[in-house]
Write a structure and sequence with these properties.
single chain; 107 residues; alpha+beta; two-stranded antiparallel ribbon
Length: 107
């Protein structure tokens, strides 16, 4: 039985969403404040950039667990953008167990 599922996120920046989607192998298109996921694990789901809500369908496997790669990519893209804005850079990315470690520098 199909169920509509909505997951609240903090994803409200289109450029960061697009970067994260690309890194996670998810294609998407944007129209105004709506991002439609057209390929990958979130195919058929929709993100409202005003609220950060992603709405999908359980029949397509749209669960909060599926969002993990996209949310992680969004956080990493946000960190990169922050450091670039302040004259810094992300020097390296490492996996430590199941955690991502970004080594950043400023100046």
């Amino acid at each position: 039985m199909s169920h509509r599922v909505t997951t609240k996120t903090e994803m409200k920046d289109l450029a960061l969403v697009q970067e994260a989607a690309k890194a996670a192998g998810i294609s998407c298109t944007a129209s105004g404040d709506i991002v439609s996921f057209t390929g990958g694990a979130l195919r058929g789901a929709v993100l409202d950039l005003k609220t950060g809500n992603i709405t999908g369908d359980s029949d397509y496997g749209h669960t909060s667990e599926v969002l993990s790669a996209l949310k992680q990519g969004y956080a990493e893209a946000g960190i990169r953008a922050h450091y670039l804005k302040h004259g810094g850079n992300v020097e390296s990315r490492q996996m430590v167990g199941d955690k991502v470690v970004l080594i950043c520098s400023i100046g």
